[in-house]
Amino acid sequence: MSERGxxxxxxxxxxxxxxxxxxxxxxxxxxxxIVFNLCMHVAHLAVVRSGVIAxxxxxxxxxxxxxxxxxxxxxxxxxxxxxxxxxxxSGIGLVIENGVLALSxxxxxxxxxxxxxxxxxxxxLGLGTVFRFWSYRTWVFRALPAREAVQTAESFLGDAxxxxxxxxxxx
Length: 171
Prior knowledge:
GtrA_DPMS_TM, GtrA family protein
């Protein structure tokens, strides 16, 4: 395969990964926004506390979506390590997301519902999402090593019947 063809294939795979990550993230965004507003307006919790609770619920939703759909073909042999790293990087994303909210609400004095939602669910979530995408694909949902992937594929091929094998018996 030419370098240009290889680059095109890599870009197509990256675009597919970003689309899946985005779809999972969109579901997480809806969960996050609903829980955030319920905590603030129904449970009457403080704004940052509401943000942290909402982000934690969205993190759980996103783990399931990313593990079993976006990155389902990656190495899952060390699931406890994967989950630990996912929670670590999600926690950093939570701090980014809710840090923007705290800065906007308490630092700059933008305390309206619209301002809180924009700070948390647009600016903070946007920054947190870029960080999460990079960290998840780099550290958490790692691709299978090439040798393992080839051996796995060969094991499937070795067990498969050969429907088009030639019969050398003369018939």
